[in-house]
Amino acid sequence: AFDVRVASTGCTYTVPPGRTVVQVLADHGVDVPVSCEQGVCGTCLTRVLDGVPEHRDLYQTEEEQAANDQFTPCCSRAKSALLVLDL
Ligand code: FES
């Protein structure tokens, strides 16, 4: 599990194994637009202000993924204990 923090509210939520960041945020009324939910379309692309994502998308280039300043919360996870999201 890892935590995500919504920068605009400061609220932090835990993402357990088997659930996605998008699902956990939706539980708390934070809606991220999604389409494919498989890391292909880029609709859910969200800026990451702090922390290191574990990219599982096929949308970004390797270079974009390596920058670690955005990720696809429909399928990607975190390598760090916390991700701070620009939401
Ligand atoms: Fe398509 Fe996340 S919804 S990449």
From TrEMBL:
What is the species of this protein? Pseudoduganella dura
Membrane-crossing residues? none
Question: Which residues of the whole protein are included?
Answer: 233 to 319 of 319
Q: Where is the 2Fe-2S ferredoxin-type domain?
A: 2-87
Q: Which domain of life does the protein's organism represent?
A: Bacteria
Q: What is the lineage of its organism?
A: Bacteria, Pseudomonadati, Pseudomonadota, Betaproteobacteria, Burkholderiales
What this protein is called in its record is 2Fe-2S iron-sulfur cluster binding domain-containing protein
